[in-house]
Each structure stands twice: as C-alpha cells, then as structure tokens.
Amino acid sequence: MDSTDRKILKLLMQDGRMSFAELGRQVGLSLPAASERVRRLEEAGIIEGYSAQVNLKKLGFPTTVFVQLTVPPNRYDGVKKEMEAIPEILEAHHVAGELSFILKLQLADLEDLEPILLKMNQQGQTASIIALSKTVDKNGIDLV
C-alpha cells in the first residue's frame, strides 16, 4: 500500500459514493487507474464494503447502552448466538480481563433494556452503562 492508496481510502471513507473519475482526479490518476486501485484494495480485503451511515437516533433509537457481560468460557458459543438474535445489540466485543464481552445496544426506550438483560442474565452476569452523550466519534480516517 502506497501513499496513493492511502489517499484513496481517506477519500472513500469521507464519501463512499465518490465516482472513479472524481477519485482519480483528486489523487492524480486516470479513471481506469483509480478503478483498478480500488478493485485491488477490495480484493485485498482492505475495503470490506460500502454502506449508508444512518442516524439511528433520528429513526427513533435515541438511547445507547453498553452492557458488560461475564460468562463461563463453555457458554461463549451459546451467548454469541443469543447476541446475534437481538437486533438492538449493534456490537459485541470479546475482551480480555475479568469481563467476557462488552455489548453496544441502541434502544428506542430505556424500558427495552430489561428484557434484553433478562436474556443475557440467563447466560451470565451483566452490568449496564447508559451513555449520556457521544463526545468523540471517529471512523478511523486518521489511522489511514
């Protein structure tokens, strides 16, 4: 990966709908060369896909909650299936330390947390953290 690839990644992270012609113009490549660079980045698995960034708060899901979950290792597969089946769980991270997982939930109402916790408590022990606001929101562009 060279500096041109990094420029392409930054531009696509800012605007995933940018045309190859515009992309090429901004990095000093022809349309076919820009297209080929993007194709290689996709094939290498560096670009995993393209999607719309949707504001879930404006869609009626204003509450962000983080749940710490501790489960015995022999329950990891079962708890993973359980987490995948709950649409409000946006992310689940298997972590090192005393905890097993940290979950990120997006809820329409705080009352929606209780049934999820009841399900998760069947697997292990939970602790919840309610987010008051998001103070830093990065997409990793500064790492490229």
Account of the protein in words:
- With 144 residues, this protein is α+β, with helices and mostly antiparallel strands.
- The chain has two domains: 3-43, Winged helix-like DNA-binding domain superfamily/Winged helix DNA-binding domain (Arc Repressor Mutant, subunit A, Orthogonal Bundle); 63-130, Lrp/AsnC effector binding domain/regulation of amino acid metabolism (RAM) domain (Alpha-Beta Plaits), CATH 3.30.70.
- It is 35% helix and 19% strand.
- The protein is built from five helices and four strands.
- The protein has a four-stranded antiparallel beta sheet with strand order 2-3-1-4, covered by helices on one side.
- The termini are close together.
- The relative contact order is 0.16.
- Sketch the major β-sheet: 4 strands, antiparallel
Main-sheet strand order equals 2-3-1-4
Number of domains as seen in the coordinates: 2
Rg on CA atoms, Å: 20 Å
Report the mean per-residue pLDDT as an integer. 96
What CATH architecture of the largest domain would you give? 2-Layer Sandwich
- Inertia-based shape: elongated
CATH superfamily of the largest domain: Lrp/AsnC effector binding domain/regulation of amino acid metabolism (RAM) domain
What name does CATH use for the topology of the largest domain?
Alpha-Beta Plaits
